[in-house]
Structure formats: structure tokens, C-alpha cells
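Crash report, auto-generated. Payload:
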Amino acid sequence: MAGLLLRGVKKSYGTVKVLHGIDLDIKSGEFIVFVGPSGCGKSTLLRLIAGLEDITGGTLQIDGQVVNQLAPSKRGIAMVFQSYALYPHMTVYDNMAFGLKLAKGTPQSDIDRRVREAADILQITPYLDRLPKQLSGGQRQRVAIGRAIVRDPKVFLFDEPLSNLDAALRVATRIEINKLHERMAGVTMIYVTHDQVEAMTLADRIVVLNAGRVEQVGAPMELYNFPANLFVARFLGSPSMNTIPCAIVAGGAEASVQPDGCAKISVSAVIPTTAAGKRGTFGVRPEDLILADGQDAIFTGTIDIVEQLGEVTLIYVDVGTAEPIVAKVDSDVEVAKGQKIALTAEKRHLHVFDENGVAYPRG
Amino acid sequence: MLWHLVKRTAFYLLVVFIVVISVFPFYYAILTSFKSGTALFEINYWPTSFSLQNYTQVLTTGSFPRNLANSLLIATVVVAISLLLAVTASFALSRVRFRGRSTLLLMILAVSMFPQIAVLAGLFELIRFFGIFNTPFALIFAYMIFTLPFTVWILTTFMRDLPIEIEEAAIVDGASPWVIVTKVFMPLMWPALVTTGLLAFIAAWNEFLFALTFTSSNATRTVPVAIALLSGATQYEIPWGNIMAASVIVTVPLVVLVLIFQRKIISGLTAGGVKG
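Recovered output after restart:
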């Protein structure tokens, strides 16, 4: 129903620039996740879309209409806040009906039907007469989502809705939000989080933001497999990608790099021959590293730390680089601190970035 | 063990001391109000006789009931207008960003720093200019000068602590500032409203200097002035019994008000709205 179009959207507070011109096309019915480290401007961008902050420059269109000057309630949006932001003195029912009652023109019977429908979807019907303080955190967040559903929005905005919930509840609510998205086909959802698991599991497309700029937009696996630059490469994935400054030895078909303090490695990334001799960055994800028998090892060194997480084991290997190399291996692999170890990875899993941190396409 | 006992005893002795000091004047006023004739001039600490003569006298002769009504009207109107102005002002002062906001807040506070006597002459001229001398409006107007600064300050600090997300949720729901103030904030601010309203009421109820200056007839006076001006049969007789009876009558409404509203002054009204 409603797509969003952002063109050069800027935001500054006085002289402090927070967003430096965001261009984004969001299709109707898409689930978009804004992700980035704290202070990257993701929440600000959401608040601009909601209309809670004024846009300093650029245009924002919802459904083909420029809404820069439109009041939040006229934009056809609904928002779920991190802290729930329920009206403490109203019952669950009144919390959900408040917006409709204010809008006038909606008949009482209609309000009642919509509130009960939303309550039904979220399984909060038994609590309709309770006050927010009589509910648990998860129930409160569902009421907040219900309040948004009742408004029948074209665009659903979530501002870190799960960060106040405990781990188990977070997973359950995440799945519920996912179901909600399926049920409300055609409703565009924009979701802000700093949690990459939420981003990976919920998003149709992820928008990675950093310091007020869009770093990359794409489907979760696309971003994971083909990060456009060092920032995205390091941001997605846990633990983050091992990155080592390197010298680019050769480009073309026989491309190879030499990470500082390591041996030369041949890579499949598409590196132009003109890049040979320049500096760059070599990257490999911890989960792509496997134990090697020493012949074709990329890294050899001694194990500094072993972290057993149950399903996997993280090993931190000192290979002579500034930072230890992290490898994620099966938990049944027996390793011990101080042990000599050799690590390698398939050629196709190796990432190379140029001196500006932009990725060379992987072949 | 012994030390523990000594500490407890000392603590309760201190409590008794404080209670006696603070309650004794009022106790003595009540005691005196039930005395009559020459018993008034005997010093007793326990009731010896009981008579309602002072009360009937004060309520039937003179304009005391009228004064009581004046006080009630003026204090109520002062509270109502102060709260209305203070709630709207505090919304602006706590939630709207504008140039000179903190300067304005400081100025409001500064107004309340002037001693009453310093503004008396100027205020008298103003009241004469508006033509409201010797009417209840004169006192309502004058009392705003000291009720508004503290009501605005208390409500501003209180409103500043209300979670901003609740306001934003209301904005997204399509609430105008007036709706936010009346339907969302006011219900959350009951404790603050009751407390400031009560303080404003007490201040207006007990005020003496302005009431003495801006009224000139018995029919327009408020209770504190009326009590001070109660006179006996002759110029040389001070009607202590009547004065004490009147004082008790004046104090009782305040005590009742506090008792009614102390139930309302409960904390944790915002619990559950936001995380935690």
C-alpha cells in the first residue's frame, strides 16, 4: 500500500550534523531494519519518518505524498517505543482505543471491534481491563504493539522494541513480530535495532547506518556474504570478521595479498591489476576458518584463549598480528590454551578491501 | 542491650518533645476556646470546663460567617486559577524549547523573593487603577503573586520528569498539546496538583497583610483579618475566647482538606507506563 521514498534527508541539531543526506527507497509491505552502532542516527531517522523531529533538509514521501510538514498522526504511521510508552492511568483497552477516540468520526462500535481484534491477535484479551503496572514487560510491549495495530497504519515503526525484554522473551516477541508482518501483508514495517540477530532474522532488507550515512542496503544474507565495505563486514557477524592490514601483491586472475606478519595468500576477489603494490585490508570470518594441517595454512600461531559456548568454541590465536585471530570451530574440536595451531579457509570465503575500505567483489 | 534501650528511650523522648512543641499552641487554642468568663485567665493544661458559648457568639454576632465565606471563595478561586495557569505554563516551560526558557523560569522564581511589604504600595496603586479595591478580586489578583511562582516551579519540575515517550506516543496518536496536558499529563500529575493546590490554598487562606490592606469593610474581609480585628464590648477588653474559637474554626477546614487529600498524595502513579 505505502512505499517510502527518502531523498537527501538531512538532520542537524544546531551545528551538529546527525544525518548527512539519506537516500532510500522502501517498497510497500517491506520489512526494513535500520541497524548500526549507537549514535549512528538510526533512531533519529525513524523519528524523522514518524514526524517526531523536523527534517532539516531533503524530502520524505509516504505513498507518493511529501510529508515533511505533516503532523505524525496524519502520516498514516504507528510507532512502538522502546520503553512501551503506555498511558499509565488508562486500562489496556483505553490505551489501545485512545488514538481512535481522539480521531473522532470513528463510531464506538468500530473502535470496540478494532481494539478486540488487535487484542485477539496479540492474545491480550484477558488483560483489557488491567492497568499497565499490573502487566509484565512482555505483556506491556504487546499492548504497545496492539495500540499501533489498532491505528491500522500504512507504516509500522519500531524503535528497539525488544531491548527492554529478557533474552527468552526477546526471542518469543521477535517471532511474534515476524508473524505479525506476515499477517499484515502490505503494511510497511521499519524497525530500529542495534541487535544484528534481530536484523538478520526479521528484515527483508537491512539498512546499515554509520555516523549518519547509509553504509549498505540489502537482504540480510547479501550483506553477510558480500559486505560492500569494511564497516559492514565488521558490523555483521559475531564475533566480527578478522581484519588485517595487507599489501596487495597482485591483481587479475592470480590475485594475491600478503597480510602484515603473515605469508602470501591467493584470493578469488576481483582485484584490478593496477591495484598491485597498494595497501588494503584482508578479512576472513571466524566461522569460515577451519583447522589446517600446516601445509596450506593461512595463519599459524599459539592459542591465547579458548571460549566454549556450548554449540561452538571460540579460539583466539596469536599469529603475530596486532589483534589475535578469532576462529569459530565445532565444540567437539579439542584445543587447549598454548597449543600450536594452523588455520585456513576456503578461497571463496576470503575478503579483500582496498585502502579506503571498499570491498573488491568476490569471485 | 542497655545501650539499645537508652537509644530507644532517647529517640522517643525526642519525638514527644517535637510533638509537644508543635502541637501545644494549637492545643492551648482549643482549650481556651471552650472556656468562658474568667476561666479564660486561669492557666490550665487540662480541660476543666466545657462551653460552646464562644463558638455561638463568634458565629452569630458580627460578620464572621461572611468572612469565612469570603476566605473560602477567594482561596478556592486562587487555587483554581493558579493550577490552570501553572499547568499550562509548566507544559511550555518543561516541554517546549524556546529562547530564554531558563531566564523566564528564574524570573518567575525571582518574583517570589520580594517581601510582601515591598510590593504593597505598587500593588495598591494597581488595584486602585483596576477599580477592584475592597472586592474579592483584589485579593485573588494579589495572591496570585505568591501562589503562581511556586505552583509553576513545582509543576514544571514534576512535568519534566514525566517520560517524554508517553508524550510522543500521544502525539503519534494524534493528541493536541491541550489533549496531552488534560488527558495524559494531568491524570499522572495528581499528586503534584494536590500538593501544590493545597499549599496555594493554605497560603491564600492564611494571608494577612494583603487582606488587611486591600479591603476596608467588614463584609469583604477574610478570616485572618477579621480575627485580628475582633473586638470586645469595650476598647480595653480583648475577647480571647472568641478569637480562639474563630481560630479553631479557621484551622479545621485546612486539617480536613489535608486529611482528604493525603490519600491522593500517593507516589508511583506513573508506574507501568514505561519500562521498569
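Post-recovery validation: The longest helix of chain A spans residues 167-183.
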